[in-house]
Amino acid sequence: MKKYGGARFAKPRIDRAGNIKNIDRYNSAVPLEATMGDDEILSKLNEVQDADSFISFLQSLQQDWEESEALEKRSPSNPYAANANGWENTCIGSFLEAAAAGGTAHKNRLSDLSGTTADVWRYAAEIIMCGKVYE
Fold it and tell me: Taking the domains of the chain in order of start, what are their residue ranges?
């Protein structure tokens, strides 16, 4: 198990259909805090195989961010913890930095995939997801 930025990571658990299972900060290349919206986002992430499904994933992530922003306006989170819905990075700069860091830290994940076009789209979605949750 590797440790990056205070969080521990292991290889993701993949089911026979190739879907990422039981994603959390201790069992995945994509660390997550459990939030209500994560089930839908993870479902969309697991469905990514082409441009259309990638865009659908991005739309779900955007809706989750908008919900998080609305919740933060009503009741701000502790400034030393993730925002509502588990968002660690709420400005574009920190989001992109986290996505790049998560992608760099987990480059070996791409070699775990079969190399199909669907896998490349899925890996791109995983890197984007790191922008939300990577510390």
Answer: 36-133
